[in-house]
Amino acid sequence: MADEQGTGTVRGARADARAQGGKAADAMPYLPASSTPFPPPGVAPVTLTWAETVAGGNYTHMVIARGTRVRLDDVTGEACAHIVVYNAVGSWERLNVADTVKIPWQAYLGTGHPLLSGDGRVLATIVADDSHHHDALCGTSTAQANRARYGDSAPQGPSPSGRELFILAAAKHGLTPRDLPPSVSFFKGVRVEPDGGLAFTGSAGPGTSVELLAELPLIILIANVPHPVDPRPRYTCGPLRVHAWKSQPTAPGDPRWDATPEALRYYLNTAGYAAARGIA
Question: Per the confidence metrics, is the pTM higher than 0.85?
Answer without folding.
Answer: yes
